[in-house]
Amino acid sequence: MHNRIVKTIDKSGEDPVVAALRPYSAPDEDEPKLEAVELFQKLFGNFSGSSHAQEPGEDISILDHLYNVEHSYDNNETQKLTMEDILSAEANRDSLTNDSYSGSDNATFVKPSVHEDVVTKFLRLIETQHLLGENCTAGTHLNLGEGVVDRYAQERFRIEAEVAVNRANMLTRLWKYAGPAVMHNEYLLHASVFSMVEFDDDVFAAGNCYDQYQYKDYQLFCPFAYRLPEGPILAKDLAVEYKYLSNTSEWFYIARKNAERVIRNHNQFRRGYNTYTYNDTAHTEREFDEILSVTYEDGKWSKPYYDCGGGNIWMLTYTVPFFGYSNGTYFFKGTSGIDIDLRRVDIDQCPLKPGSTQLNIFAGTDKCKKKTTECVPVPGLGFRRGSYRCVCRRGFYFPNTTAERRFYNGSDIEEEYEKHLLHQASLYSVVATFECLPCAEGCEACMDGSPCVAALNWVVRSSIFALACFVISCLPFIVYFTIKYGHVRVVRAASPALLRVIVLGALLIYCTTLVMYGRPTVFTCTARVWLREVGFCLTYGALMLKTWRISVIFQVRSAKAVKISDMYLLRRIGVIVGVACVLLSIRTLVAPPAVIVGRTREDLKAYLCNTDWWDHSFTTLEVIFLMWGIRLCIMVRKAPSEFNESRFISMAIYNEFLLSGFLNISMLFLQSPANPDLLYIIFFCHTQLTVTLLLCFIFGSKAYMVFRGHGKEEREKTGKFRSRP
After folding, report:
1. Is this structure's pTM higher than 0.85?
2. Helix, strand, or coil here: 38?
């Protein structure tokens, strides 16, 4: 029997929804599918003593459809499936897997160890019933219980339900005021339900079913319109085929109880007035219009049920009562209802957006791999799993960069996830499958792995770094020179202590090249500013004060000698450095240097240290300090100086002033388009052309004179300046 049932499913001409869900079906071998069908029927209740299956050529009667609606409300007798039942059934299936089917050669059920959410089980139940198609037991012995799709439908199909409410109130008004002369026109009532079905494509059927002997002398009367499989709408009196006042007509019984409650409360009235045409130029007096109305809350949604025999689709029904009026009282007269075809409901498995108040029990059940992809719902695919796409998150790109459709199909992922749960060979468990690849560094979004950040020229930078290290390695020899030859007059006259301060400042300035070697960070940008400013204060502060001492001594006109010691100058240098450190500390705490993103000529990102008004302020102070130094150089240009040191100091100060101006002006033109490598080269060249030349001017001349023997020992007292009276 079951083999015949399974074989009657024709895959070539099947329903499009079934075709879409075909990946979720059991294997094509007959015996495994047979056992799956039997197991499903035993566990989920779609099984009766008299198994009935329609032959492919057998007509589907609308009588079966309304019979199915009855069972969708059952709470005690019907084999309903709540979410707890689904969980219990899954546990029983696992038990049967281990006990009853452990020796079967045709089908092997493996108990999944992977966590499976409740909604996934629920969706599998829906799909399994889709695949059974016509091979099901007539009726609604299979329904989904309370709190599943019906709560979802209250939001999704509220507008369609309000149509039934509106039609119920219209019938109440017509039966109260229009009278039998109008209402006994059956075409009028047929047209009413016909228009309800036409209102929305989601409405599969609509009907107004009257209570016993409430229409003419008919025992029952139920104008009912529904969509035929080929498309048109058919309206008919359903009561001819279906006697709905049976003990199992729960939907009609609930509507009667709701009507009694509304009549008992007697507080839901709608009032208005009517005037009629008296003649071509006048109306009649206003006539009062009042009815006892129903609202959306007075209706009832059925549990979602599988309408086996009446369309073989998942259905959802809403029913609300309407009233008759006689002898000043209202009474229950019938029901107004709509049937929703759940195939038209899109199951949105994607997570709700932050702040959303939408009711969606399916939200967050997608199987997208959240690390690199995100879910995007695909409307129009109906009541099925996998109605979504997994698209790449921002910052990731689809691995197949030549594909026209750069996303993963949700139905494919659901299929592989199902295999994964059953411990079958599955792509879902393979690392990097259904994943996107990260964009290149610095890319906020991308279409492929192309770089977004300009690559640094490490060959040039490494060469500059090595050269800077070589220059720094020479500084200890300069310090050693000041110590070893400190007794030589040419060195001693230049104050060895101040010479060492100059070397220390040069070291700090050289270190700016080292910290700028890699990609800028807040730390390296801050360190660059500190090293530059403190080194500048030490080096050029010592030079300025040495020049200042010469200017003070040779501007004195009295016979009394002026003595300015090296210690006094060192204290002055300490004050200058202290002021600079205070300003740098304030700047670091208030507005630390930031890393900005510039754009190269190729429109690639380039990271640069930001230049703000703090930097411009420090540059201005440097320029003012250098201008003071230039003034001192002018003052002492004719003063006698042993070994011409003041001339070399002046040359170093002039050189720094000119090159600093060039550097700051060039910085304005190198921000856009950005060129980090060129900036690094310019900074290095500026350091070498200023500090290195300064060291050559100051120490090169002294080394030359010492090693040529012209430095004069301390014991020698001759000299141009000392020999003067």
Report:
1. no
2. helix
